[in-house]
Amino acid sequence: MTSSAMIRAEGLVKTFGDFTAVDGIDVEVRPGEAFGFLGPNGAGKSSTMRMIGCVSPPSAGTLEILGMDARTQGAQIRARLGVVPQKDTLDEELTVEENIWVYGRYFGLSRRLVRERAEELLDFAQLTGRAKSVVEPLSGGMKRRLTIARALVNSPSVLLLDEPTTGLDPQARHVLWDRLFRLKREGVTLVLTTHYMDEAEQLCDRLVVMDQGRVVAEGSPRSLIEQHSTREVLELRFDVADHQPVAEKVHGVAERVEVLPDRLLLYTADGESAQAEVTRRGLDPLSALVRRSTLEDVFLHLTGRTLVD
């Protein structure tokens, strides 16, 4: 752990009665980086984020944010955080700019400063033309951008984003990614949770993979793929109800074979050579696809299930 860490957790635990949601994790977030928590629903990501946001006290372990103790200095920490919750909490009867004005006043900002910040943030979020519009009829992508703009009104040192693009269409997701890239270039430290592996690969400098409340891997997206998967994956689909018997017929073709309900995944350094060997063995799949390994393959290897479980 480094003394300059924006967030430092050691042995962090969160329990709810007899249930352990976060089970002794160690995490360090460095200044100016985009750090991600990757995992399926129920992995402990949101419970961790609530502790980092100082709205849920740790049950055990150490948690320091911006050099302060999360247990005893929560108010001071929250004043320097921006928080984008999993579900938008906008006041839909107010206008777009009024949502930012009201939120800024919670931080004690003057009316003049709040209005200046709102103008800047609406330009950043590409919502200047909707400043006078009420929120209710806006698209999901616009509401999400407004939520992020609102979270930046206090010029936070760290921006927490819990599942920032859940429910958005692909175009809206890419617009939002562009806004987050801009924030990172401006020096804002981003901490996000996601169960979208492509989002984690696009946004995160480093991440931890969580499963059942524990960290099962940590590193950059590329280093995790190199460490826990092969360069390529051959996906095979057959016209059978159970792919397990087919898996036995491709034994030895690849370094590792994963059997999913609807397909086989063959992990290999050379997908085309593996596909040729499958054909040589007389197997005729309905479809065959050679692709690069992704973080989903890493997760499957580490936990035995896919991210969307």
Automatic annotation (TrEMBL):
The keyword Protease is assigned to this record: no
PROSITE patterns given in the database record: ABC_TRANSPORTER_1 (PS00211), ABC_TRANSPORTER_2 (PS50893)
Pfam families: ABC_tran
Regions that span the bilayer: none
Principal place of residence: membrane
Any one biological process term the GO annotation gives: response to antibiotic
Gene3D superfamilies in UniProt: P-loop containing nucleotide triphosphate hydrolases (3.40.50.300)
Lineage: superkingdom: Bacteria
Record's bilayer topology term: Peripheral membrane protein
Molecular function terms, GO-annotated: ATP binding; ATP hydrolysis activity
Subcellular location: Cell membrane
Keywords assigned by UniProt, alphabetized: Antibiotic resistance, ATP-binding, Cell membrane, Membrane, Nucleotide-binding, Translocase, Transport
GO CC annotation: plasma membrane
Domain ABC transporter: 7-237
Family: Belongs to the ABC transporter superfamily.
Protein name: ABC transporter
